[in-house]
Amino acid sequence: MKESMLEPSSLENDSEWLPLKRPWHKPLGSQRKESEAEKGHDLWLLTLSDLLLLLMIFFALLFGLTLQQQAQGSQSPPQAADAPMQSEETPVKIQPPSAPDGILASFETDLRAIIGEEDSKGKAGITRRADHLILTFPERILFNPGRAELKLSIQPILDKVGSLALAYPDFLMEIQGHTDDRPVNTKRYPSNWELSVDRATQVAKALIGLGIAPAQISVKGFGEYRTLYPNDNESNRSKNRRVEIQFYLPPQP
Predict the structure, then answer these.
(1) Is the distance from CB of 170 to CB of 103 less than 8 angstroms?
(2) Is the pLDDT reported for residue 87 higher than 80?
(3) Is residue 189 in a domain?
């Protein structure tokens, strides 16, 4: 009976007591901070995804508009921005000649009127170009061979030309001298260049003496390098020896 009874002291010494551990909990403040940080990351990702989606929608719309414009352009031809729309029933109007063309036509009529008699005798010729008139004088009615002094017989014709030029002060005149290919080698004219320039200059001086402003006149000499016909016979050579007065209006601004 005595042996079966255990003493409390011996029981306490022999048994192993496990210490009780209390569960650890994070402080409330730290939990709130972590939740707010995670929420901030989520908002950033949401904003980026929305932006990417908007960009995709924008490019899709832009691509669709481009395809639509290309389809419309291939169906109908483009029209000039400043050209008015005209129906098929609209009559086509013929534009009247511009002012320069009208002046040139009037000048041509007057020039042919005063040169017509001389032209019929083969002394002078008038040629119409797109924007100028050419009055051609053969050498035989202006100069003696190899010389540049004007004949007295040409003065009445030059007087008429000068009077007409004074009535049209807007016209400019370019006087050109031309020769054939036969060489000239004198002390005054070493070549046909000098002879052709001197002949054109003498005609210009005669017109200036009639009252034409020098600013309206220019002079050029081409020698034998701008022929009308091949220099293969005397008839063609005589046609190549000439002085031309070209009448034209200055370029419009």
Answers:
(1) yes
(2) no
(3) yes
